[in-house]
Amino acid sequence: MIELGHLAAFLALAASLAQGVLGLTGARALAGRAALVAFAVMVLSFLTLVVAFARSDFSVALVANNSHTLKPMLYKIAGAWGNHEGSMALWCLVTMGFGAAGALWMRTGRETFEARALGVQGWLATGALGYLLFASSPYLRLDPAPLQGAGLNPILQDPALAFHPPMLYLGYVGYSFVFALAAAGLMEARIDRVWAKEARRWSLAAFIPLTLGIALGSYWAYYELGWGGWWFWDPVENASLMPWLLGAALLHSVAVTEKRGSFAAWTALLAVLAFLFSIMGAFLVRSGVLTSVHAFAVDPRRGLLLLGGLIAYGGFALGLFALRAPKLEGGKPWTILSREGALVVNNVVLVVAALTVLLGTLFPLIAEAAGRTISVGEPYFRLTFVPMLAALLAILPVVQAWSWGKADLSTLWKWAAGGVGLVVIFLLLGVGLWDIPLGAAFGLALAFWLIFGALWELRRRAVTLARVFRLPLRVWGMTLAHIGLGVFILGAVVETTQRYEATLALPAGGSGTVAGWHVTLHDVRAIEGPNWYADKADLTARKGSARAEMAPTKRYYPAARMPTTETAIHKTGTGDLYVALGDRRDVDGETRWVFRVYFNPLIDLVYLGVLLMGLGALFSVLPRRRKP
Amino acid sequence: MRELRCVACENEPISQSSAAIAEDMRARVRVMVGEGATDAEVRDWFESRYGEFVLFRPKGKDLTGLFLWSAPFGFLVIGGLIAYGLTRRRRAGAEPVAPEDA
C-alpha cells in the first residue's frame, strides 16, 4: 500500500519536472496538464500515508514512530502531518495543489506568462518533492514491524492543532504561487496592472489561511500550554509572523500596482520575499538552530538542505529581480502626500517590523557566535515592534481617505483635532479614573480610533446609508480588516495590561480568591482516557451570583512519557477565568495541589479581531458583484 | 517575573514555568520585592547569579546590545530615506484621483 504511495510520489516528481520544463518553454496547455497530473498523483500518494496512519500500520516506520493504536481516530489521521516527514509531504501536496489551481484559474490572457508561472511552480514542487523523497522519506518500511507505536507528541493531540498545520501550510505554500507569478512577470519584465490583478487574488488566497492558521496556533497555545497568554514571541510563532507581515505589506502594495501601475518592482520584490520568509520559517523551525517549545523533528542535516533550497530559490529570484527591475515601467505620477505615499509608509513600516522580528529571533544566535548568551523576549518586542506598528495604525484612519496622486489636505486639521481629542479623553479616563498604565490608555485610544476610522471611511464612500450595501465587496473587506485590527488591539491591550494571575496551593476543601472569584477545591481524582491517565481537579468558582464548575486536568501519556495540561476555562461576558492544575505538594503531612489561576479580560476580542481580518481578506477575494 | 527566563526550560519565563527552579526563582523575587528592591535591582541580582541569559530584556550597554536596540529604528530611518529618495522622481504632474474601491 505505502509502496503505491512511494511510486505515486515519484510519478508526481516526474510530472512536476515536466511541468517545470514545459512551462519555461512556454507551453501553457501542456504545463497545465502536467500540473493537474502531478497534483492528482500526489493526492493519491498522500492518501496512502493517511490510510497507513488510520489503520495503524506499524510496518511503516513513520507510523511506528508517531502513532499508537489507542489514539482516537481524528489524531491518528492528524498524525499523518503531525511530524516532520508527513508535514513535508503536506508541503509538497499544497505546492502542487496551488500549481493545479493556477493551471485551472489563472485568467490573464497572456499565454507565455502563465506558462512560465506554472513552470516556476513546477520547479518549486520538484525541489520540495526531491527533498521529501531523498532526505526525509515518509514511505520507508520497518522490518520487523513493532507491535505498538511510539505515539504522537501528546501536546499535539488536540483538535485545534490537528487543523493548525494544514491551515498554516496553505498560507506558507500559497506564497509559492505568488513567488512563481513574480518570477514569471520579471522574466518578461512586465509587472503591470493585469499582472497585479492576478497576483492580488493569489496573495489573498495565501493570506487568509495564514491568518487563520496563526490564530488557531495561538488559541491552542492559550488553552493547552497552560501559560495563560496567547502570544509568547517564541521563535516558531515569529517564523509565522514574518511572512504574515510581509504578506500584509504585499496586499497593500499590489493594490497600488493594480490601480495605478506604480510600485511594480517593489511589489515583485515583496512577492518573492513573502515566500522566501516562509521557507526560512521552515528552516528555522526544522533545523534546530533555535530552541523552541514546539519544534519537532529537529535534524541539522535537513536544516542544511532547507537552507540550500532557500539560497537557491532566493538567489534565482533576487538575481532575476536585479536584472529586470530597472526595465519595469513606472505608473502614474504621485506626490508624497497622497494615497501612494501613505501606502509607501505602510510598506516601509511593515517590512521593518518583519525585519525587527527577524533580528530579535536570530540575535541570540549572533550574540552566541560573539561569545555572549542572551535572551530576547517580550520586553524587546514591546519596546520596538509595538510602537512602530502603533504609529503606522495611528495615521491609518487619516490617510485612508486620501486620493491617489495628490491628497486634499484641507480637512487634515479636523483629523488632527479628533485624534488628539480622543487621546486626551482616554488619558484622562485611563490614568485618572481607571488607573491603568499610560501605554494602555494610548492603546485603547488607538483601538477606538481605528474602529471609528474604518466606519467613517465606509460612510464617506457610501455618502448615503442606502448605498452602503451597494459598495464593492473590496471596500467591505478593507473595512472589516481594519475594524478587526481595532478589535484585536482593544483585546490585546486590555488582556496584557489588566490580566490578573495568581498561584494557589489548595488542600481538598480549601479555597482562595482571585480577581473577585472565590475558588473552592472539592477533590482531585485519578481518571483514565484511551491512551492517557490523569489527575482531574473538581473546583467551584463563585463571584456574586455567578457560579462555575471547573475541572482542570493534568494528563500523563505513558507511551510518550509526557504530561500535558488541560486547562479549565470559564467564559464570562468580560473575559476568561482560566485555571491550570500544577504539581502536587506535601506540606506538613497535608496534600496540597498547586493551581495557576488567571483572569484574562476581553481575550476573545484578540481572536475575534484576527478572524475579522481573515474575513475581510475573504471579502476582498470574492468575485465582483455584477452591476444591475 | 515575565522578564526573567526559567534557566531549566526552553524559552519560558519563570511566571509560566512549572519547574521547581522557577518556583524557587519566583520565591526569591517575592522576597526581594518584599525587602523593597526595585525591578532593576532584582534583574541585576539574577543576572549576577545566572548570567545575562535569564533576562528577556537584553541590555544595551555594549556594542552588540546597542546594535540590537537601535537597529529597528535604524532600519526605519534607512527605509524612510530610500523611499523618500525614490518618490522624488515621480512628482511631476500628479493629479488627484479619488479611489473608487479599496
UniProtKB/TrEMBL annotation, chain A:
This is Cytochrome c-type biogenesis protein CcmF. Required for the biogenesis of c-type cytochromes. Possible subunit of a heme lyase. It is found in: Cell inner membrane. The keyword Cell inner membrane applies. One of its GO terms (cellular component) is plasma membrane. Keywords: Cell inner membrane, Cell membrane, Cytochrome c-type biogenesis, Membrane, Transmembrane, Transmembrane helix. PANTHER family: CYTOCHROME C ASSEMBLY PROTEIN-RELATED, CYTOCHROME C-TYPE BIOGENESIS PROTEIN CCMF. Belongs to the CcmF/CycK/Ccl1/NrfE/CcsA family. It comes from Hyphomonas johnsonii MHS-2. GO terms for biological process: cytochrome complex assembly. Residues 81-287 form the Cytochrome c assembly protein domain. It is a multi-pass membrane protein. GO terms for molecular function: heme binding; heme transmembrane transporter activity. Signal peptide: none annotated. Pfam families: CcmF_C, Cytochrom_C_asm.
TrEMBL record, chain B:
Belongs to the CcmH/CycL/Ccl2/NrfF family. Residues 2-95 form the CcmH/CycL/Ccl2/NrfF N-terminal domain. GO terms for cellular component: plasma membrane. The chain crosses the membrane at residues 66-86. PANTHER family: CYTOCHROME C-TYPE BIOGENESIS PROTEIN CCMH. This is Cytochrome c-type biogenesis protein. It comes from Hyphomonas johnsonii MHS-2. CDD domains: CcmH_N. Keywords: Cytochrome c-type biogenesis, Heme, Iron, Membrane, Metal-binding, Signal, Transmembrane, Transmembrane helix. Pfam families: CcmH. GO terms for molecular function: metal ion binding. Possible subunit of a heme lyase. It comes from the Bacteria.
